[in-house]
Amino acid sequence: MRRPRGYVLVADRLFDGRGGVLVNPVVVVEGSVVADVGTRGSVEFPEGYEVIELRGVTLLPGLIDAHVHFSGLRTYSPAEALTTPPELRALRAARDAERALMAGFTTVRDCGSTIALHLKRAVSEGTVLGPTIVAAGRPICQTGGHCDIHYLPLEEVRRLGLALLCDSPWECRKAARAVLRDGADFIKVMTSGGVGSEKDDPRHPQMSVEEVRAVTEEAHRVGKRVASHAQGAEGVRIAVLGGVDSIEHGYFLDEEVVELMLQRGVYYVPTLCLVEFYKKTLENPPPGIPEWRLRKQEMCVDAMPRSFQLAYKAGVRIASGTDYYGPPLRAFGNHADEPIAMVKYGMRPEDALVAATKNAAECLGLSNVGVLERGKVADIVGVLGDPITDIEVLRRVVFVMKGGSIVRKVV
Ligand SMILES: [Zn+2]
């Protein structure tokens, strides 16, 4: 396919990722980079560039989902991961990557899976169409922790190697080094129980500050970040004191721990859209979902919006992440569910858009995406309508450009 020297995108509105809006914007894309941004009349149209008119469209920086898992799973049955061949799961995950990209999500962070490290490579070499992937590889938790598989014999969990179980600072340090050796972009730890693990409680802490600190020291000295799954306030406190860079879920926050997150500049990925998922599946349980999981979902639904509002009002930096991993209701392609849920539970639409662009990029440690301005990577999305007056239009993605290449255009 012939590629023009560059593109000039002309639209109705532009949201820059920082909170600013341009009316009648023009964006010049040269190669893989944004060469200029301005309003009509103020920006020169370079010769030989293809002009793309996007009528009724709002342009945004490529959207970012800061919390997914490329699992290739399609049901809520706990045994599916163990009974589905890994090759099949990897092929499904490749399809999921394409779905995310077509929905306008040009960057995603995989918070723990064995597939993502390889899928990331397949995308970057051009084998698979998908978003830029920032991958954690194998997550780290304590024996009996959230990424342990509680119904299997311990030896079997260790043999499977889907996660690393560690029970001292030195074991944690060694696990962190192993994950970095695998090629992880960041490290995921678990400092509380969770909804998806059978025998623990989301409110109870896991790991010690010393164990978390061993991981963050190893990551930080090679310029990488650490994200912690932490639902109860004590698990959040352990993670923050241990030096993590982002808190995932944070379902049961209190004022003290919110203050600590603020002081340390820790990002918060509330995965708030799961409230909707929890409510739907409590009303109408999908096949295979275990009873204990429903009971835990019920335990969290009221606390989640409360914690989100507490952190939002206090000014904690919030990033958008869905925790979607493949099954129905948590399928790839529906990543806009999170900014939409954020607005539903009291966030200004402008802030929800910042959470899904600039804040998410910063949370991932990426400085070349997340804002739409000169010099950034040309990851650009167009939605039909104005997401500031109606956040739901984030579902109406009509244009996707990744790294200067148009991957979707339906206007
Ligand atoms: Zn997750």
Walk me through this protein's architecture.
The structure is a single chain. This protein has 2 domains: 6-62 and 370-409, Roll (Urease, subunit C, domain 1), CATH 2.30.40; 63-364, TIM Barrel (Alpha-Beta Barrel). Helices cover 33% and strands 24% of the residues. It contains 14 helices and 17 strands. The protein has helices spanning 80-83, 86-102, 116-124, 154-160, 169-182, 209-220, 233-241, 255-264, 274-283, 291-300, 303-314, 337-344, 349-355, 358-364; strands at residues 6-15, 21-23, 25-30, 33-39, 50-61, 63-68, 105-110, 132-135, 140-141, 164-165, 186-190, 225-232, 246-252, 267-269, 380-384, 397-402, 405-409. The strands form 4 sheets. Strands 1, 2, 3, 4, 5, 15, 16 and 17 form an 8-stranded mixed β-sheet that branches. Helix 12 runs antiparallel to helix 13. The chain starts with 5 loop residues before the first strand and ends with a strand. The site of zinc ion has 4 residues, from loops. Zinc ion binds at residues 67, 69, 111, 323.
The number of helical segments is 14
**Small molecules bound in the structure, each named once:** zinc ion
Instruction: State the CATH architecture of the largest domain.
Output: Alpha-Beta Barrel
- Per DSSP, what share of the residues sits in E-state strands of 2 or more residues? 15-25%
* CATH T-level topology of the largest domain: TIM Barrel
- Helix/strand-derived class? alpha/beta
CATH superfamily placement of the largest domain:
Metal-dependent hydrolases
The outline comes out as globular
Ends distance: 20 Å
Helix percentage: 25-40%
Q: Which value, in Å, is the CA radius of gyration?
A: 21 Å
